[in-house]
From TrEMBL:
Keyword Repressor among record annotations: no
Region (Disordered): 1-38
Membrane-topology descriptor: Multi-pass membrane protein
Regions of compositional bias (Basic and acidic residues) in chain numbering: 1-12, 20-32
Assigned GO CC terms: plasma membrane
Membrane-spanning parts: 122-146, 158-181, 188-208, 228-246, 258-277, 297-320
GO biological process, one term: phospholipid homeostasis
Sample GO molecular function, one term: aminoacyltransferase activity
Name by which UniProt lists this protein: Phosphatidylglycerol lysyltransferase
Gene3D superfamilies registered for this protein in UniProt: 3.40.630.30
Highest taxon of source: Bacteria
UniProt cross-references to InterPro entries, sorted A to Z: Acyl_CoA_acyltransferase, LPG_synthase_C, PG_lysyltransferase
Lineage of source species: Bacteria, Pseudomonadati, Pseudomonadota, Alphaproteobacteria, Rhodobacterales
Domain Phosphatidylglycerol lysyltransferase C-terminal, chain residue ranges per copy: 360-627
Amino acid sequence: MQHSPIEIEKALDLTQPAETRPERPDDPKRTPPSDPSGLRRLVGKQALPLAVMLFFGWLLWEKVAHLNIHAVLATIANIQPAQWGLAGLATLGSFWAVGQYDRVLHAQLGTGISDRAARKSGIVAIGLAQFLGFGALTGTLIRWRMLPELTLWQAARLSAAVALSFLAGWAVVAAAALMFFQPELPWIRTLATGAVLLSATMAILSFFPPRPLVRLPWPSLRTMATVIGLTAIDTIFAGLALYALLPEHLHLPLGHTISAYLFSLGAGLIASTPGGVGPFEATLASLLPDIPLEPLLGAVVAFRLVYYVIPAALSTLVILRGPRKSNLAQEPKLVKTAPSPFLSPQLEGQIFAAPRAEAGLLRTRDFSLLTASDGTGLGLAAPIGQSLVMLSDPLAARACPSATREALARAAARRYRMPAIYKCGARMAAAARRAGWRVLPTAEEAWLHPAEFSLEGPQYRQLRRILRKAEEAGITVSEGTHELPLDQMDRVAAEWLHLRGCERGFSMGTYDRDYISCQRVFLAWQGTTLVAFVTFHESHHEMTLDLMRFGPAAPDGTIQLLIATAIESARTQGVPRLSLAAVPWQGEDRDPLIRRLRAKFLARSGAAGLRRFKAAFAPHWETLYLVAPSRIALAVSAMDILRRVTAPPPKPTGNPMKAARFATHSTLRLSRLFPGRRT
């Protein structure tokens, strides 16, 4: 595989994607504006590969000038049909892996493109781009042509991701080949050791990121392993194609030849010349010095015919034909909402009808909507670390637990992550257990019926005492309207953050003006000064406590008074259920690994004080569960969740790589030039 690592975003100045909307049937056909200056800069950068190719040609000129061209041609003529056939089969194996690169990257970036379309576009992009060279430009334009659902900016980002992931995989494979076959090249051996250590460091950081790096979108270990495995298949089969075309009388060791090919390939990639011409031959000749130049170049010419010319010709035909149907996947997937708490009317209705009001966390920066193959929303999910974690129960009260769990597992498999469901109820946990999944109690939710709540009775003695303290301090409570005192709320939130040090995330909301404007808000005043507030998620079935923020001026009992007022408001409005949210489960674990993880989580969460606070309202307690397909997946997802709770993302972001539902640009079709039957 030959693909340029030249960075394309800077050359095209594609720092932000252009906003697109689906085309309507009555819309006039329009072509998005291009950036001629950006394209000129990108084309100008291709002068460097041309200069490198000319430089290596000048270095080789002395040897090339004395070449026996007839001997080179004779080497090609003496290649047997069986050798051509073996080289062709090896090329097919290599290009199979080439198509998988794009499939992996599309899944990792969440573009929504189907696996088949991703493989096809990847194969034709590499097939022609490696022949033409200048892969930054050609790969981008070919993918843009084959996937009209992507913008030029998205195609450029995708091409860069494929190139960089291949380079990373190539470095590991080349290093492993060198250390295994041990050619006598000490300076390269040092580089190989460094590449292996770097890859090991990346794997460790993916699994155990230090706190400052937790928020970075690390690829999962399975993604890294898949890319390295595909790179090995791609490059080893390409090396086998070259080996099959070498004259039999040379008796070259297979391992040494493949190692030489790998490093020659790297030289061509770094130089970015068309097909790696020049650096590839120069490096290969230096690594195989015992082979006469004529037979070696003859085999290389034959290899370029099989591995470059024929795939380029076939790719050209496919590219000219162009896309024939929608490339979007019809599979369970994650749909990232806009980076705003304000959702579409359809989603707003679905969240309000959800059995758990906690579905309002879809408004936060952490979650995407898990959808079925037909686009039906199933639940809230987020890729974190090595896991794809769904939060709580399905959005639809009558949703089939098994169907939701299977959709989650399929979506996780496409993203090379392990599925898990966090804080689900007993029904979902029982269905998962019957399917062979591991089930772990993880939290206890405190909830009550507002219609039955009363401050009378001995169980509320402590609550009555703390409420009197707040009332005696002159605290009054009001429910927020559409005109919230946002400036004062900002101040209280900042004071709380100064006291606590950091916000939690994932299954807990974080303070944001737009976010709280979508919730029920209750405000505590001391005179005209706001001293505390709480917010609740709201659905048709319940209200759920989310944010509790207070400053140093808030007297004891202020938060309790806010919650008691919210309970009274819920009773007045006929809300059947009010949740005080969950606290960590504090039972005994038999598994020593889970026991250590739980102890670590409890130490960070301050669970004991939180449980005492909620117990003052004499609530009912419902056990919630973490479920995953295996013991390892259970432990890994627990660690991923713990890290995300303690280090939420810094700001909300959409998915800039999400493909549009319709074409973003016009594409040339041969059927328009030559009318005929369309398929």
